[in-house]
Structure of diguanylate cyclase:
Amino acid sequence: MQALSPNPDEFNRDSSDSPIIEWLLHDDQVMRECFRHAAAILKTVTEASITAVLLLDAEHQHYRAEVGLSVHPIPRRQSLSHYAVQGDALFVVEDARQDPRFTHCLLVRAAPFVRFYAAIPLRAPGGELVGALCAMDGAPRALPQAHHAVFEHLRAIVENDLRLRCATATDPVTRLFNRRFMMESVRQKWREAAPDDWLAAVMVDIDYFKQFNDTYGHPAGDVCLQRVAAVLQTIADENQAIAGRMGGEEFGLLLSGLPLHSVPPILEQLRSGVMALGIAHRHSQAGVVTVSVGAAITKGSTSSQAAFAAADLALYRAKHAGRNAVVIH
């Protein structure tokens, strides 16, 4: 059995700086099907009463493709998976009830009253933790050595599918959604919105980026894109938004489920956050890299295409107003 810390708060939380968790938690049918098959194979081989793929965001454990269990997301620090993902090896607990360190775990002290638990971490192509493949049972038991290899092989299959899927979904330079997946995610969010829900379509452009590339070189340009994207992703993470690279030096953002009055301060936080990076740019009036931001605040009854077209117009106005500005349509 793997040695554990007596206190789960000693573990550092793994907080992903990529959009992969957000994407998987929302709706990716290809990976959902992969998860379903992996959980089903694991159940057939181990004969465990419950098998599942778990996804982990910063605060919660979410079940995907669970077989034999229906449960809402639970706090990550009250889950067995919180312990299981501290390393990369297969993690096995033969009887959770016999170890006082697991008494706080929800599925141990309440239905389905888990005693046996085995899980192996799952990672995205960049190495960030996304979750675990697990098997659980209400009766204590050992895991046969032959089943250890099954966990390893299933992890390889899931991670390979995830690697192939990510290659088609994310921009390789910034690790944000690429344009196609950004707009697919926007359309999905728009379909989920009620006609009277407010949404904010946002377009962001790095000011004088061509001159930056010409002056400092393309490797420096890539670093600039990455650092601006990191600011954008932080804004997205803080506000449960969707962020992506639309192409070149242009980015997109969708804000939803927020009070209307909060949108202007968020966009100003984005503009000032990029400026605060202090990336030297001799062709910028500010002397550092800045962005222009255009936004359109509209209701769900408007099409996403129309909203982003209006945001693009607002971006045009921001650039022609002197750049390093926010304009809301």
